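Run log // design_07
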């Protein structure tokens, strides 16, 4: 009896007299010497297989060199042992053949921009072949695609020219946007200025109108107050018993004082003369004056 200790994520394939017997799982395992033989151990962790750079020809007859990496995992140790002699080499060969088929259907520009598509098609082809090998393809990565030197230089020039063209377009677009923004700013500024002047003129006109109304109301109020005062005065005179003749007499006294002034002539309306003439002594005085 012999004891075999198998580490984690490792599986051993045991043959008894040349025929598959069992798998050695992680931990302590018993193997019968001479009769049983551990043919090989499989690492169950995800492994990486680099596919050597492949020179392939595109649909438009351009040679490109492609580097690919395959990530795989052994999920069936028995199938991986007896299904194929070297599954790593098998994966690399299938990748190379599939890569040539895929690139032969693509033009150079499609090849350079189609890494995800190329990786997906290689993985589909590998899955169909490796399923019976006990190997599962985890991921396919196209690391690099290298066109010929002259084409690379032409692509660099084309890329530089395209970048210059985009820079010129961006500068023109920036200048255009700058002019548009400035014009819009000037337009809004003029509109706001015109609206401000319009509102100022409206407010000025409303102020002038309001001042005229207030002035008119003041004059009307003053006239009303004067009329009321005059009416009150007349009513007070009537209440004091002053009749029309007394008022005429008072007027005559005022005319007398005026006549004693620097003026040597006083013109009296004819109606007033008749009224004053009806008053005895005043009538005599007016006769002398006339």
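design_07 sequence
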């Amino acid at each position: 009896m012999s004891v075999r200790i198998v580490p984690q994520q490792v599986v051993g394939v045991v043959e008894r007299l040349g025929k598959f017997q069992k798998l050695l799982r992680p931990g302590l395992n018993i193997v019968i010497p001479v009769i049983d033989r551990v043919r090989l151990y499989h690492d169950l962790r995800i492994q990486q297989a680099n596919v050597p750079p492949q020179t392939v020809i595109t649909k438009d007859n351009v040679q490109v060199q492609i580097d690919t990496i395959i990530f795989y995992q052994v999920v069936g140790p028995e199938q991986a042992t007896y299904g194929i002699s070297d599954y790593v080499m098998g994966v690399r060969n299938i990748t190379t053949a599939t890569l040539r088929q895929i690139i032969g259907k693509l033009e150079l520009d499609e090849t350079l921009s189609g890494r995800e598509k190329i990786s997906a098609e290689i993985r589909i082809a590998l899955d169909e072949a490796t399923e019976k090998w006990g190997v599962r393809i985890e991921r396919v990565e196209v690391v690099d695609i290298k066109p010929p030197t002259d084409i690379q230089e032409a692509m660099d020039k084309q890329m530089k020219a395209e970048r210059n063209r985009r820079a010129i377009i961006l500068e023109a677009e920036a200048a255009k946007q700058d002019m548009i923004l400035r014009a819009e700013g000037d337009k809004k500024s003029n509109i706001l200025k015109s609206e401000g002047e319009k509102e100022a003129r409206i407010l000025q006109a409303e102020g002038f109108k309001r001042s005229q109304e207030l002035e008119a109301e003041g004059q009307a109020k003053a006239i009303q107050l004067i009329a009321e005062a005059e009416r009150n005065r007349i009513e007070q005179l009537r209440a004091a018993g002053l009749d029309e003749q007394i008022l005429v007499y008072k007027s005559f006294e005022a005319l007398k004082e005026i006549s004693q002034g620097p003026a040597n002539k006083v013109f009296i309306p004819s109606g007033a003369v008749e009224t004053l003439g009806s008053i005895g002594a005043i009538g005599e005085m007016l006769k002398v004056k006339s």
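The chain has a mean pLDDT of 86.
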